[in-house]
Every structure is written in structure tokens, then in C-alpha cells.
Amino acid sequence: MNERTAARGRGQEQQLSRPGVRMRMPRGGRLFLATCLGSLAVLVLYYQSIGKPEPSVGTGSRPEKSRRSPLQTLYSGDQQLQLLADQKSLQGRRELLEQACLSHTKKRRLLSPEDLKHLIVDDKHSLIYCYVPKVACTNWKRVIMVLTSDGRYTEPLAIPANEAHVAGNLRTLSEFSVPQINRRLRSYLKFVFVREPFERLVSAYRNKFTLSYNTAFHKRYGTKIIRRHRTQPDPEALKKGNDVTFQEFVQYLVDPRTQREEPFNEHWESVQSLCHPCLIHYDVVGKYETLEPDAHAVLSLAGVEDMLQFPTSGKSTRTDGNMAARYFKHISPYYQKRLFNLYRMDFLLFNYSTPEYLRT
Ligand SMILES: *[C@@H]1O[C@H](CO)[C@@H](O)[C@H](O)[C@H]1NC(C)=O
């Protein structure tokens, strides 16, 4: 039960920017029972389909489409698909993930609708995208807004970033009933984009703690980190929380109190906890390191590659593939080891090798 509880309550960022929304935490016996029954149903029905993606059945509940669904396209193995140079590597990643799940996860825990808050749904193109902050998720949200907007938007970058993050602009799988969830899990193309875990972590640190405008994070997390992990902090820093060092951030992450008190913020929560890649069978595991071809592959499968392009920012952030090494220099081997243990599963599941700069 603990693990389940810990996986709840994501989306702090949305809570920060829109206080009061998404406060529905199941409490009390009846709700809890309902959640349990719900979980069971999601798990049981969904598992029948794993490893054997069903073509979507024409039940007539959706508008008839002459095109194949992205999921059918992916597994049909036709020649058009073989033109996608990275098709093989996508299959390799899927298989590796499956193997890693088999060998590293002991217990299969139940999936509840509450776990599906990061899964964004595009009913029009039969897509499910699990968003992971710091892995091009703003651009993916923009793209899905274009895809689901019925022509209201045509250009992803014309959508302001903050609008892409407004809860309610996109639908998440958790909003649907259990049978509706199961139907979508079975017949939609499910994809996630991941990134080298420590590069992602350093990116989150830089974005949330070193930029002066992120005052919400400074107040919410920075002040607490400084109070707990800085000896003799000055009153200004205690009040503003705006000068957290990477070392202090690492101490906060590995402190057992942190996750006992509340789940990690989604910006530093592991992909494993956000997207449940061992419970949800992702059809495409895209990587930030190969964002362009991987994004193109997803858009091609969805049949929209002529309609829009994935926005690749002109910024050089992505070429800088060894940002983490610089930050880890100042972290002691003891903390490096504990930090690695926190993100270990993300390294294993997505085939990222242990960084050479680690001194553990
Ligand atoms: C896993 O990573 C290794 C080393 O980087 C690479 O050679 C291999 O192709 C990867 N495997 C998959 C399935 O992506």
C-alpha cells in the first residue's frame, strides 16, 4: 500500500500555478474501496492484451476511420514502416524494457486511475503520451494540443508554454472510467520520452533553482532545502530559498524524510514512478538524446507527419550532453551512490549506462 500511496499526488507544478485544483485525494473507507476495485479492473482487463496488441475493434462507438490506427501501423510491419530507419531500435528498446522489468521488478503492483495522471490522451489520433518534465514535454503537450484542437491551433510554437501546462487543456487518462481507460490502453499507441536520468535531474535543478523567476519553487522547496541542509543559513536565504546549491538539492533528494513526507515533485520524480513503464506497455520509448527522429517516428505512426513538425528548439541545451558531469564533481561519492540508487531503475529500464564520472 505504501508504494501506491507514494505514487499519488503528482502535478505539484499545476498545484503551484493554480492553487486549489486537483486536490482530490482519495480519503476514507468508501473512496478507498472504490479505488481498490477500480485498480483491480484496470489491471485485470488491461493485462489480457499485453504482448499482443489488439487491432481496435470497430464497435461503432467512435467515428469510422478508413485509416489504420497508429498502433496497428506500428505492429503491422509493412514496408512503409520499414522506411523508418529507427524502427528496429524502437523495437530493441521495447524488448529491453520488457526484459529489465522482468528481471528487476519483484512484485507487480496494482494500477489505479490515480496513477494515470501523467498520461495524456488524444482520442482523435488514438495516442497516449506519458509526459515527463525536462524531456521536451512542453513541446509534446503543444503538439497534442494542435492534434486535438480541431484546427484551432496549427502551429505548436504559437501556443504559449504556460498554456500547454494548464491542467484541463489536455485530457488525461485518469479522467476516464475504468472501462474507457481499458479500451484506450488496449487500442491506442502509448509512448513516452525519456532522458539520461542525471542529465534530466541537473536540468531540473538548473531550471527550478538557478533561475530567478521560479519563485514558486524557491518558496515551496528552496526554503525547506536551505532550512534543513545548510548550516547557519542567513535569514534572507531562509526566507527566499533562491540560492539552493546542487549539493543541497542532492542532500534533500536522498534524505529519507523527503519522500516520507510527500512524493517527489514531478520534475525530479523518476520516470518509473511517473509513467509506470513496467505496468503500462509503451509501444514507443523515445529518447531525448534522439529527439528529432524519435518524435518524427511517433508523428509518422500517427499519420500526421505532413501536417506538423515536432518543434525542435534552436537552443543548444541538447547538444550539451555532459552537463551532469560538471555538477557531480562537487558531490561526494557517498551522496553519488545514494543518488544513483534513487534513479537506478530509470538507468536500467531505459538502457542508460552508469555514468563514468561517478565515483561510487
Ligand atoms: C543499449 O545500450 C548499448 C550501449 O550504449 C547499445 O549498444 C545498445 O544498442 C542499446 N540497446 C538497445 C536495445 O537500445
How many domains is the backbone divided into? 2
Q: Please, what is the average pLDDT?
A: 82
* Poorly predicted parts: 1-34, 48-65
Strand order of the largest sheet: 3-1-2-4-5
Taking the sheet with the most strands, its summary is:
5 strands, mixed
User: Which outline best applies?
Assistant: globular
Say which molecules are bound, naming each kind only once. 2-acetamido-2-deoxy-beta-D-glucopyranose
Query: Total number of β-strand segments?
Result: 5
Main structural class:
mainly alpha
Based on CA atoms alone, the radius of gyration comes out at 21 Å
The total count of helices amounts to 18
Strand content: 5-15%
- The N- to C-terminal Cα distance equals 32 Å
Question: What are the defining features of this structure?
Answer:
mainly alpha, five-stranded mixed sheet, 360 residues, 18 helices, binds 2-acetamido-2-deoxy-beta-D-glucopyranose
Please give a structural write-up.
- By secondary structure, the protein is mainly alpha-helical.
- It contains 18 helices and 5 strands.
- The chain has helices at 2-6, 12-17, 29-47, 70-76, 79-82, 87-104, 137-148, 161-164, 178-187, 197-209, 215-229, 235-240, 246-254, 256-261, 271-275, 291-301, 323-328, 333-349, and strands at residues 119-122, 127-130, 171-172, 189-194, 284-287.
- A 5-stranded mixed β-sheet has the order 3-1-2-4-5.
- Helix 3 packs parallel to helix 9.
- It starts with a helix and ends in an 11-residue tail after the last helix.
- Residues 89, 92-93, 96, 351, 353 line the site of 2-acetamido-2-deoxy-beta-D-glucopyranose.
